Predict the 3D structure of the following.
Amino acid sequence: MAAFDLVVLGETNLDLILYGLEEDLPVEREVLASDFRMTLGGSSSILAHNLAVLGCDVGFLTRVGGDPLGAIALDRLREAGVHFPASVVDASSKTGVTILLHHGATRHILTYPGVMADLTVAEVDRSYLARTKHLHISSLFLQKGLHEGLPELCRELRATGTTVSLDTNDDPENRWGGILDRMLDTIDLLLPNDDEARRMTGCDDLEEAIHQLAQRVPVVAVKHGKAGSIVRRGEQQWKVPAVAATPVDTIGAGDSFNAGFLKGYLAHKPLAVCAAMGNASAALSTQRPGGTEAFRDADLRTHFLAQHMPAE
């Protein structure tokens, strides 16, 4: 059987994005948006899509419902070259959906989880995982069905030489404990943004937050917005500046950073180069609405990455 560069274990949904809305929305009134987009959503699926477009062989262990939203999402992923096992559609359930209300620099994010919380470790195809060099997990707090047994699965994989990365994304309950504490000692790479790193550790100071996380995780790569990214391994740290680009939409930029970083990481590039690759991928994603549309635009993607992606 063919080997994968990476298998993603995570959620798939669609993003419905409305633009041009005031942050303080009235109730019982019809509020008109200035624009609308329906794009592939879900941190895991955005990463899988964009990493496949960047040329990696990507497998995806996920679930969608037996509805049109799930069919559209799977079509987008297949178009990018993402591979699935046979059983990803749960005909009796609904695909998750996220509605994003865009207010310029800020946004409201409203999510119906649907089937994304139903996948369990017991259902994970171990023979499928045996075909990969690396496992990536996203949206840890949304995927409640995986919480039982996930740390043990990661330990088993690492014992066979498979590396593991994690991007928790937000904790809707804002607790930042439980499963996260059990996961930190079972992964090779943690990919939070700056706010998430602070919340995980309870530290207002980002440098201290990164220091604490690096005591438990071999590599910590933090997305730091307009400042770029910070990577820490033990006592070594690199600050890598962002790519200068005027954003159209920042949705999915963090997941796109992960895609670029992981492409370099899987090729054993120096960590500072991995971060630069992540920064370029993140900047590309901001050039179109949603997290994958810039990667689907072949002309834009080729031209932008030729300018900004570090030489491999």
Remarks:
- The longest strand covers residues 13-19.
- The chain has a mean pLDDT of 95.
- The chain is about 35% helix and 20% strand.
- The longest helix spans residues 271-285.
